[in-house]
# Entry
Amino acid sequence: MPIRAVLFDLDNTLILEDESTLAAVRAAAALAHARARVDADAVANAAIETAERLWKTSSAFAHGEVFGIWWGEALWGAFAGDSPAAKTMRAFVPGFRAAVWRGALVAAGASDDALADDLSHEYIRVRRSGETIDPEAEPLLAALSRTYRLALVTNGAGDVQREKLSRTPLGRYFSAVVISLEVGAGKPDAGIFESALRALDVGPAEAVMVGDSLVRDVQGARNAGVRAIWIDRRLWDESGIVPDARISALRDLPAALDALERRPASPRATS
# Structure
C-alpha cells in the first residue's frame, strides 16, 4: 500500500527546541551579569540545574510526563484551557519561575528578588521572540506537501505548541495539527497517532511518522501500527527500539520514504 501521509513531530525535529531554550537562558544570564556582575555561565548553568531539579519533584511533573511538557516550556508558557493538566500548570509556574531564577542568582553569589523577576521576564521575552528552525524544514515540507498529506503530531499544551508554530512559516503545509493536551493523549500513547490518522482520513499502513524520540515518536507510532523514521539528533539516552529507518538530517527523509515504499507495513497496520 503506498504511503499517503507523513506525520511530523515538532520539537527537535522541525524546530530546535533545546537550542531556543538555551539561547533564552543565556540571555537571562547575560542580563544578570550586566546588572549584578555575576558570572553569566554560572547563572545559566545554575538555572538549568535548578529548573531540572524542581521540575522533576513538582506537582506538575506527572502531567508533563503524560503530555510531553518540560521545564523549558514551564518557564514561559501560558497553559490556557480548562483541563486538569492546564490548571495544574498555571498554578505551578509562577512559583517555579521565581524559584528557578532566585536559585540561579544565589548559586552565582547574588540575592536579588527584583532582579530574579527581571531574569524571568527576559527569558520569556527572548524565548517568545522566535523559533530556531532547522533550515531544511521548510524546503522539505514544501516538497513533500506536493505528494503527501502532512500532519503535525506533537506533545505539549495546545496554546504553547500553536504559539511556537505561529512563529514559523511551517504551519501552512499541515492538513492537521494534533497536540497531546488537546486530544487527551500524549505520545507514545497510540491515541494521538490515531487522532492524526482520522484527521487525514488515512489508515495506519498509509502513514509514516518522523520524530527525534525513539520512545515517544518511534514506539508511539508502532503502538498505532504506523511505521516510523527516526531523526537522530543525539539528544536522548534511548535504546532498545529499532525504527523502520534512521536519518541524521531532514534532507535524507525523501530517500528514506522512497525506501519504505518498497517495504511492507508493520503487522499491526495490516491486521
